Amino acid sequence: MAVLDIVLAPDPRLKHKCAPVGEVTDAVRTLLDDMLETMYAANGIGLAAPQIAGTQRVIVMDVSKNEDEKKPLKLINPEVIWASDDTNTYEEGCLSIPDHYGDVTRPERVKIRYLDTHGDTQEMDADGLLATCVQHEIDHLDGVLFVDYLSPLKRNIILKKMQKLKKQKARDAA
Ligand code: K1U
Ligand code: ZN
């Protein structure tokens, strides 16, 4: 397994729509394992393929609170097949936009259809933090970031700060 580099916003790779996985192969399973390791190393609760420069519709998550009882989730081609009318507002973060947060309102409960690592179709009901996280991750697969839900003013402030951070990181690495 490997810890991969996380793509930081703004970056065109975070704005593309990902392609569905056609066949669940060993390469897809290895990618999911690497994504989970990357997510845990970054102390995240989710990660989507574009965040490691991937182009396929795969996400990983673990919203368990207990470090000793990990509950990793690997979802291939996830889609929301039902969403509640009730909404929930959560102050979201993003591993591609470190140290910035913003309130996002989303459906409180969702039903997700996806393929598991055997290529079998599964359905999952999600509420609370899992519902917030899975919608955030599926957004990533469609090139949508949590800052896209904020006002243009807030979004631009955050993305300008991120641009500055990336320039500084590039200078530090040179
Ligand atoms: O996709 C990502 O960038 C991962 C992101 C997922 C996420 C967090 C909060 C709301 C929605 C989606 C993160 O894991 S950022 C890390 C973080 O903010 C967090 C970590 C532990 C618990 C709660 C939030
Ligand atoms: Zn994110």
Task: Provide a brief overview of the structure.
By secondary structure, the chain is of the alpha+beta class. The chain has 3 helices and 7 strands.
Which stretches are low in confidence, meaning pLDDT under 50 for 5 or more residues running? Answer: none
- How large is the count of helical segments? 3
End-to-end gap? 28 Å
Q: Indicate the structural class.
A: alpha+beta
The counted number of beta strands is 7
* Helix content estimate: 25-40%
Task: Describe the strand arrangement of the main beta sheet, using strand numbers.
Answer: 1-2-3-6-7
Write the element-wise H/E pattern from the N-terminal end onward. HEEEEEEEHH
What does this 3D model show about the protein?
It contains three helices and seven strands. With 174 residues, the chain is α+β, with helices and mostly antiparallel strands. It has a five-stranded antiparallel sheet with strand order 1-2-3-6-7. Strands 4-5 form a two-stranded antiparallel sheet. The longest helix has 22 residues, at 152-173. The chain is globular and about 45 Å long. The chain starts with 25 loop residues before the first helix and ends with a helix. The site of ligand K1U has 16 residues, from strand 1, strand 4 and helix 2. Residues 94-96, 136, 140 line the site of zinc ion.
Topology diagram in text:
Blueprint: H1 26-41, E1 46-48, E2 58-61, E3 73-83, E4 87-92, E5 102-107, E6 110-115, E7 121-126, H2 128-141, H3 152-173
Antiparallel strand pairs: 1-2, 2-3, 3-6, 4-5, 6-7
Residues 94-96, 136, 140 line the site of zinc ion.
